[in-house]
Design brief:
The structure is a single chain. This protein is 66% helix and 0% strand. The protein is mostly helical. The chain has one domain. The structure holds zinc ion. The site of zinc ion has 6 residues, from helix 3.
Length: 121
């Protein structure tokens, strides 16, 4: 049985499924395969958590140098000062970066779990 590629599972978790045959085939497989269903469920949880996360959910505000590194290559303009509590493009970029990091971690975990299952099962 060929399982759904983890990158494809991420696309499905992000809600990027199309009406095309590739996605339809993947969704048919997921309905019948517990392993792929579990991985998609995990990735969907990560996506949902990341999309609903707020900066206040972070244990501590990220240091200014983190923001500078993220934005360094994205914009030639220095970040503008902001009103306390205001959500800025900077916040959205930081949350996007955190989402990407969380997805990468979920993908890595899914890969490792799959490899372990193939070795033992
Ligand atoms: Zn599968």
């Amino acid at each position: 049985m060929t399982h759904v590629d983890p990158a494809h599972l991420v696309e499905l978790a992000l809600g990027h499924a199309t009406a095309g045959e590739e996605d339809a085939g993947a969704l048919r497989h997921i309905r019948q395969c517990g392993r792929c269903r579990d991985e998609l469920r995990t990735m969907t949880r990560v996506v949902t958590a990341a999309r609903t996360a707020q900066l206040v959910d972070l244990p501590a505000a990220p240091p200014e140098r983190v923001w500078r590194r993220i934005t360094h290559g994205l914009s030639p303009e220095p970040p503008a000062p902001r009103a306390p509590g205001a959500h800025t493009k900077r916040d959205r970029l930081l949350l996007t970066a955190l989402t990407a990091t969380a997805l990468a971690a979920a993908l890595t975990a899914a890969h490792r779990a799959g490899r372990l299952r193939r070795r033992t099962g």
